[in-house]
Design goal:
single chain, 181 residues, alpha+beta, Pnp Oxidase, Chain A, 8-stranded antiparallel beta sheet, 4 helices, 8 strands, 22% helix, globular
Amino acid sequence: MGRTWDAIPEHLAEWMPAQPVWFVASAPLSADGHINLSPKGDDTFRVLDPHTVAYLDLTGSGAETIAHTRENGRLTIMFCSFGEKPDIVRLYGTGEAVLAGHADFAELVAHFPVKASTRSVIRLRVQEVASSCGYGVPFMELQRPRPMMDEWAERQGPDGIVEYRAQKNQVSLDGLPALAD
Protein backbone atom coordinates (compact mmCIF):
# COMPACT_ATOMS: atom_id res chain seq x y z
CA MET A 1 0.00 0.00 0.00
CA GLY A 2 1.38 3.43 -0.92
CA ARG A 3 2.20 6.08 1.65
CA THR A 4 3.24 9.71 1.57
CA TRP A 5 5.29 11.83 3.95
CA ASP A 6 6.24 15.51 4.02
CA ALA A 7 9.77 14.60 5.15
CA ILE A 8 12.09 11.63 4.65
CA PRO A 9 11.41 9.00 7.30
CA GLU A 10 14.46 7.47 8.99
CA HIS A 11 13.91 4.01 7.52
CA LEU A 12 14.00 5.45 3.98
CA ALA A 13 16.97 7.69 4.79
CA GLU A 14 18.90 4.46 5.40
CA TRP A 15 17.31 2.43 2.58
CA MET A 16 17.73 4.87 -0.34
CA PRO A 17 21.54 5.22 -0.29
CA ALA A 18 21.84 1.41 -0.15
CA GLN A 19 20.16 1.02 -3.56
CA PRO A 20 22.73 0.40 -6.32
CA VAL A 21 20.72 2.23 -9.01
CA TRP A 22 18.15 5.02 -8.92
CA PHE A 23 16.64 7.47 -11.41
CA VAL A 24 16.33 11.24 -11.84
CA ALA A 25 13.55 12.86 -13.88
CA SER A 26 13.24 16.46 -15.00
CA ALA A 27 11.55 18.41 -17.77
CA PRO A 28 11.51 21.89 -19.27
CA LEU A 29 8.44 24.09 -19.03
CA SER A 30 7.84 23.84 -22.78
CA ALA A 31 5.15 21.30 -23.66
CA ASP A 32 7.21 20.07 -26.62
CA GLY A 33 10.48 19.87 -24.66
CA HIS A 34 12.32 16.67 -23.87
CA ILE A 35 11.53 14.89 -20.62
CA ASN A 36 14.77 13.61 -19.17
CA LEU A 37 15.12 10.38 -17.21
CA SER A 38 18.62 9.36 -16.13
CA PRO A 39 19.89 6.30 -14.24
CA LYS A 40 22.38 6.98 -11.44
CA GLY A 41 24.45 4.91 -9.03
CA ASP A 42 28.00 4.36 -7.78
CA ASP A 43 27.80 5.77 -4.20
CA THR A 44 26.68 9.21 -5.37
CA PHE A 45 23.49 9.80 -3.29
CA ARG A 46 23.22 11.27 0.20
CA VAL A 47 20.37 12.18 2.55
CA LEU A 48 21.49 15.43 4.19
CA ASP A 49 18.50 15.96 6.46
CA PRO A 50 14.78 15.01 6.45
CA HIS A 51 14.05 17.65 3.79
CA THR A 52 17.24 17.67 1.71
CA VAL A 53 19.10 15.15 -0.44
CA ALA A 54 21.99 15.57 -2.83
CA TYR A 55 23.74 13.56 -5.47
CA LEU A 56 27.07 13.87 -7.20
CA ASP A 57 26.48 14.93 -10.79
CA LEU A 58 29.11 13.41 -13.05
CA THR A 59 30.13 14.67 -16.48
CA GLY A 60 28.03 13.04 -19.17
CA SER A 61 26.96 13.42 -22.76
CA GLY A 62 24.21 15.84 -21.77
CA ALA A 63 23.37 18.29 -19.01
CA GLU A 64 19.57 18.09 -19.03
CA THR A 65 19.07 18.03 -15.25
CA ILE A 66 21.25 21.11 -14.80
CA ALA A 67 19.35 22.97 -17.55
CA HIS A 68 15.91 21.96 -16.28
CA THR A 69 16.65 22.83 -12.68
CA ARG A 70 18.03 26.21 -13.81
CA GLU A 71 14.81 26.87 -15.71
CA ASN A 72 12.17 25.60 -13.29
CA GLY A 73 13.63 23.52 -10.45
CA ARG A 74 11.23 20.57 -10.94
CA LEU A 75 12.93 17.33 -10.07
CA THR A 76 11.91 13.80 -9.09
CA ILE A 77 14.23 11.09 -7.82
CA MET A 78 12.99 7.49 -7.84
CA PHE A 79 14.39 4.41 -6.14
CA CYS A 80 13.20 0.86 -6.66
CA SER A 81 14.22 -2.27 -4.89
CA PHE A 82 15.40 -5.25 -6.92
CA GLY A 83 15.68 -7.36 -3.76
CA GLU A 84 13.26 -9.13 -1.45
CA LYS A 85 11.24 -6.11 -0.27
CA PRO A 86 9.37 -4.71 -3.30
CA ASP A 87 9.53 -0.95 -2.64
CA ILE A 88 9.41 2.06 -4.94
CA VAL A 89 10.12 5.48 -3.42
CA ARG A 90 9.85 8.85 -5.13
CA LEU A 91 11.20 12.14 -3.85
CA TYR A 92 9.44 15.22 -5.26
CA GLY A 93 10.78 18.71 -4.81
CA THR A 94 12.81 21.63 -6.07
CA GLY A 95 16.27 20.91 -7.33
CA GLU A 96 19.28 23.03 -8.06
CA ALA A 97 22.67 22.35 -9.59
CA VAL A 98 25.39 23.55 -7.25
CA LEU A 99 28.46 24.15 -9.41
CA ALA A 100 32.07 24.73 -8.37
CA GLY A 101 32.33 28.34 -7.28
CA HIS A 102 28.91 28.30 -5.55
CA ALA A 103 29.09 29.12 -1.85
CA ASP A 104 27.76 25.64 -0.90
CA PHE A 105 29.79 23.55 -3.35
CA ALA A 106 32.75 22.64 -1.10
CA GLU A 107 30.48 21.65 1.79
CA LEU A 108 28.24 19.52 -0.42
CA VAL A 109 30.95 17.79 -2.46
CA ALA A 110 32.72 16.79 0.78
CA HIS A 111 29.90 14.27 1.40
CA PHE A 112 31.03 12.19 -1.60
CA PRO A 113 34.05 10.25 -2.82
CA VAL A 114 36.43 12.30 -4.96
CA LYS A 115 35.71 11.71 -8.65
CA ALA A 116 37.53 13.29 -11.58
CA SER A 117 34.26 13.57 -13.51
CA THR A 118 32.41 15.63 -10.85
CA ARG A 119 30.51 18.39 -12.63
CA SER A 120 28.17 19.61 -9.89
CA VAL A 121 26.16 18.50 -6.89
CA ILE A 122 22.42 18.37 -7.47
CA ARG A 123 20.56 19.32 -4.31
CA LEU A 124 16.86 18.53 -3.92
CA ARG A 125 14.69 20.29 -1.37
CA VAL A 126 12.17 17.52 -0.72
CA GLN A 127 8.52 18.56 -0.56
CA GLU A 128 6.92 15.11 -0.69
CA VAL A 129 8.04 11.52 -0.32
CA ALA A 130 5.83 8.80 -1.81
CA SER A 131 6.14 5.03 -1.63
CA SER A 132 4.36 2.38 -3.63
CA CYS A 133 4.67 -1.34 -4.15
CA GLY A 134 7.26 -2.66 -6.53
CA TYR A 135 5.45 -5.90 -7.29
CA GLY A 136 6.12 -5.48 -11.02
CA VAL A 137 9.87 -4.87 -10.59
CA PRO A 138 11.97 -8.00 -11.18
CA PHE A 139 14.46 -9.52 -8.78
CA MET A 140 17.97 -8.68 -9.88
CA GLU A 141 21.45 -9.06 -8.43
CA LEU A 142 24.25 -6.54 -8.59
CA GLN A 143 27.39 -8.00 -10.13
CA ARG A 144 29.81 -5.10 -9.62
CA PRO A 145 30.11 -1.36 -10.25
CA ARG A 146 31.24 -0.23 -13.69
CA PRO A 147 34.67 1.44 -13.56
CA MET A 148 34.33 3.01 -17.02
CA MET A 149 33.25 6.54 -15.97
CA ASP A 150 36.19 6.92 -13.59
CA GLU A 151 38.61 5.46 -16.15
CA TRP A 152 37.30 7.77 -18.90
CA ALA A 153 37.59 10.86 -16.68
CA GLU A 154 41.13 9.96 -15.61
CA ARG A 155 42.16 9.54 -19.27
CA GLN A 156 40.69 12.95 -20.13
CA GLY A 157 42.52 14.74 -17.34
CA PRO A 158 41.27 18.05 -15.92
CA ASP A 159 41.80 20.00 -19.16
CA GLY A 160 40.10 17.32 -21.24
CA ILE A 161 37.06 17.31 -18.93
CA VAL A 162 36.79 21.11 -19.24
CA GLU A 163 37.00 20.83 -23.03
CA TYR A 164 34.40 18.03 -23.14
CA ARG A 165 31.96 20.08 -21.04
CA ALA A 166 32.51 23.08 -23.31
CA GLN A 167 31.57 20.95 -26.31
CA LYS A 168 28.77 18.79 -24.87
CA ASN A 169 27.29 20.39 -21.73
CA GLN A 170 26.63 24.04 -22.49
CA VAL A 171 22.94 23.68 -23.42
CA SER A 172 20.21 21.05 -23.15
CA LEU A 173 18.66 19.17 -26.07
CA ASP A 174 16.02 21.93 -26.13
CA GLY A 175 18.59 24.74 -26.17
CA LEU A 176 18.21 25.72 -22.51
CA PRO A 177 21.39 26.93 -20.81
CA ALA A 178 23.08 24.26 -18.72
CA LEU A 179 26.71 25.20 -18.10
CA ALA A 180 26.46 28.20 -20.44
CA ASP A 181 25.49 31.51 -18.88
